[in-house]
Amino acid sequence: MDKQHTVMTWWKKAIGYIIYPSAFKDSNGDGIGDLQGIISKLDYLKDLGVDLLWICPFFKSPMDDNGYDVSDYQKVDPRFGDNDDFDLLIKEAHVRGIRIIIDFVLNHTSDEHPWFIEAKNNPNSPKREYYLMLPPKYVDGNMMPPNNWKGFFSTSTWSYDEQSNLYYMHIFSKKMPDVNWSNPDLRNEYYALARYYLDKGVDGFRLDALAHLARDLSFSDSRVALDENGLAFDMNRYSNRPELFDYMREFKDRVFAHYDCVTIGEVGGGISPEQSLKLSGYENGSISMVFNFDTAWENGAYDSVTKKDEELVTNVVKLKTNFDRWYQACDGKAWMPLYWDNHDHPRVLSQYGSVKYRKESAKMLITTLLFMYGTPFIYYGDEIGMSNVDYTDIDDFNDVSARNYLAENKDKYDLATLLRFLRRTSRLNARTPMQWSNEKYAGFSTVTPSQKVNGNYLEVNVEDQQKDEDSILNYYKKAIALRKQEDIAKSVIFGKFSFVDIANNDVICYVHEGSRPLLLIANFRDHETRFPIKFKIKRTLLHNYGEELFEKGVVALRPFECYLFEVDC
Ligand code: NOJ
């Protein structure tokens, strides 16, 4: 065990909250959420008990990927406000004891970023080396991309630029050229930007698409199976490659180590927990934690286009074993973030919970998350039980990944099938306006929001739930306050964690030992089930139903019922 494990840092104690700025609160009546909107809701967030905000990108951008395509890292995009709003947001959050991490997009820029424009225009500019630009390949006289790699948004990783007569690499949209981290000048640019933000007062970063910064610079064709367009989706060519760890170590030495900041890398791309320690391990690591994707999509929704709704069932055992795998690798060696959903996933309530049992399942899900090993991150709107969209028009799925998916699949499936698929998987499910009240546009804006409000806002909204003692929102507040109690936090952060009956198909049960040993029992099904309790219960700390039903050491669990007990270990 590393001695850093025993240190209680502020970010281990923190309760995170993720804000998708365009959907949180519109302050100026243009239908788009903005920084002043966030400022106006800081008291709400403080009251909820969260104290660490991760705010998705709000910098200047042509918005091909809603701000993940940055054209000026040092300027707030006018639709979100201006740099003074950014400074004010930091100040007002800090006054309330809330810290802020921003989303730092390091893997690519917008194609409208001045670096890329110069790289295209000027063959002699050093900026050309900031990107991955390669000459075309000619096969039988036909011009082809340099290789057969496929990216994340259903297209080749290469687009042709006429001006330079070169192809440039992009693992996301073609308006998001990948930057070349093997170039030291490029790396210096990002280090300077990181210092700029930290000097401004931000408390750290969520490092976007971190896993992909190093690529296979041989650029040879992949040999994995090709799709019908002759493309190979071979993430290994641009994920978690050895140089990534060197780049991040340099980043730490040059920047992170000099600030009291938290850094959380997004490491999809199939990283193993053991490999992740090279990034987030207390010993020799370079960042504070990594977000993995291994507890998302465990209801089979991903790739479920031909499946009926009834076929999607949460794989509770898989959820537990995946979490356990990460815990076993990280225990005593690294800290972890915890989340159920974010702006890239459908709403957790629609995935692992149930719209029919909205209240019960939303309460159960937050209880399960809060007391595991890690810093919990709540996605905006989950605290009131927001769920997937009810859109019936395919055009409402106006997102680059959905559009590209539709273009690729429109001839393979009928419209109803595609619509059903997007309603269960699209990122837009989690990007609808926050439901503040039952007023028009859910109190998010005074005009038609740029993203359509979920029709359930009349029943699911903050204002109504504030008045209802038994609401999801009030349960969240209670659960968060409990998680923040010093002795409970100590058990969660330092106590030994273990699942009980990990093979049980329906129930998640875990114990967190420590000064106040905790036992969580949560039914993940919409039917009743029974679970034996082998611990001596001292008291119930949280429960999402009225009456407690026990019989001879067995608890009878109703749909999505959960208990958090204090026990004797
Ligand atoms: C991961 C972000 O979370 C996602 O929203 C974005 O599309 C890609 N990275 C590209 O930046």
> Could you give the order of strands across the largest sheet?
13-12-11-5-2-1-15-14
**Percent range of helical residues:** 25-40%
Terminal CA distance reads: 22 Å
Per DSSP E runs of 2 or more residues, the count of β-strands stands at: 23
Oligomer: single chain
Number of helices: 16
Strand content: 15-25%
InterPro entries: GH (IPR017853), GH13_cat_dom (IPR006047), Glyco_hydro_b (IPR013780), O16G_dom_2 (IPR045857)
GO biological process, one term: oligosaccharide catabolic process
GO molecular function: alpha-amylase activity
Organism: Candidatus Dojkabacteria bacterium
Features of the shown structure:
23 strands, Oligo-1,6-glucosidase, domain 2, alpha/beta, 17% strand, 569 residues, 8-stranded parallel β-sheet, 5-stranded antiparallel β-sheet, 16 helices, Immunoglobulin-like
Topology:
Blueprint: H1 10-13, E1 16-19, H2 35-40, H3 42-48, E2 52-55, E3 59-60, E4 72-76, H4 83-95, E5 99-105, H5 114-121, E6 133-134, E7 137-139, E8 142-144, E9 158-161, E10 166-169, H6 184-200, E11 204-208, H7 242-254, E12 262-266, H8 273-280, E13 289-291, H9 316-330, E14 337-339, H10 348-351, H11 358-370, E15 375-379, H12 400-409, H13 415-425, H14 462-467, H15 472-484, H16 486-494, E16 497-499, E17 507-512, E18 518-523, E19 529-532, E20 536-543, E21 550-551, E22 554-557, E23 562-568
Parallel strand pairs: 1-2, 1-15, 2-5, 5-11, 11-12, 12-13, 14-15
Antiparallel strand pairs: 3-4, 6-10, 7-8, 9-10, 16-17, 17-18, 18-23, 19-22, 20-23, 21-22
Helix pairs in contact: 11-15
The protein binds 1-deoxynojirimycin (NOJ).
